Automatic annotation (TrEMBL):
Keywords: Cell membrane, Membrane, Transmembrane, Transmembrane helix
Stretches assigned to the RDD domain: 220-349
Transmembrane region(s): 234-256, 268-293, 314-336
Protein's UniProt name: Putative RDD family membrane protein YckC
Membrane topology field: Multi-pass membrane protein
Chief location bin: membrane
Source species of the chain: Nocardioides perillae
GO cellular component terms given for this protein: plasma membrane
Any single Pfam family the record assigns to this protein: RDD
Localization of this protein: Cell membrane
Amino acid sequence: MSTDRPSARGIIRRVTGEVTGRVVAAVDPDVVLAEVDVEALVERIDPEALLERIDPDRLLDRIDPNRLLDRVDPNRLLDRVDVDRLLDHVDADRLLDQVDPDRLLDRVDVDRFLDRVDPNRLLARVDVDALLAGVDLEALVRRSGVPEIVAESTNALGLRTLDLARRQLVSLDVLIDQVTDRLLRRDFSTEPAGPARLVQAGERRGDVQPGRRRSVTGHYAGPVTRLASIAADAAIVVSSFTVGVAGIDFLARVFLGLQADRAGFSPLAVAALVAWAFVYTFGGLAVAGRTVGKALVGNRVVTRDGRTISVRRAFLRTLAFPLSAVLGLGFLLALFHREHGTLHDLVAGTTVVYDWGERPVELSGPLTAYLDRQS
C-alpha cells in the first residue's frame, strides 16, 4: 500500500494539472476576480510563496506604478523597509537625475538634515570652487553677519583708542587738582564731585571705590580736558571756515568771474569768522549740550545742578565766551574754582562735566591705586 501512494499522488497531480491548465485557458480571470472576494482570497494565500513564483519585473511592466502609489501609504511602507538595503540596490545618481532637487529642498528641514550630516566629510567630497561659482557671495556674507561684526569691531577699536586718549587727559586733570588743592590748602576728599543730579548724594572727589577703577562720570571736568576741547573747537572752526571760503571763492570765479581779494584778512572776513564761530558754538550747545570738540574730549555742558542747558543759557554762554578769552583770565579761573567754572560759565549758570555717553569715565588702574593710597 505504501508503494502505491506516491504513484497515486502523481496521478492526481497530473490530472489536476491538466484540469487547471484547461480551466485557466478557458476562464476569463477578470470575470473570476469580479465574482471572488479578493480580500478573503489574499487572507488564504501565502504572499511569500506567491512572490517566489512570480517574476516581479514582468509584473511591474504590466502595472501602473503611479496608480499603485496613489493607493499605498508610502510612509507606512518606509517603516517596514530596510532603507539602507534599498539604497544599496538603487543607482543614486540615476535617482538624482529624475528628482527636482529644489523641490525636494523646499520640503526638507535643512537644519535637521545638517544636524545629521558630517559637514567636514561633505566638504571633503565637494568641489568648493564649483560650489562657490554658483553662490551669491555678497548675499552669503550679508547673511553671515560679517559686515556687522567688522563694523562693530572697528567701531569698538576706535572707541577704545579714543577713550584711552581721553583717560590720559582726565588723569592730568586729577593730578592738577591734587596740586592746586595743596597750594590752596583745600581738602581734596571733601570737595564736591559734580552736580547733584549727576553724582550720588554726598559723593566727593576723594571717595574710594574699592575693588575697581575709580569712576568720574558726571564729575566736574578739569582744566586740561576743557583746554583740549577749546583747542579742538578752534581748529574745527578755522579749518571749516577756510574750506568754506575757498569753496565760495572757487564758485565765484567759475560762475561769476569774480576774483577775491587775497591781500589779507579783511574786516569782513574777520567778522564772518567770528559769526561762524558763534553759530558753531551756540548750535552745538543748544542742540546737544556740547560742541564737536567737547564731544571728542568727552565733556558736556550742563546747568550747575546737572540739568540739560536751555537755549537761553546756551546763548548767554556763547555770548560771554569772549570775556573769558580776553587775556585768558576767564579761563585761568577754572584752575581755582571748586567746580572748575570759567567766567562764561558763571555768567550763564553752567558747568562742564565728564560724559562719555553710555561708557563710564574711568581713571587708569595705577592712578586709581595712587588716589586710594592718598585718601
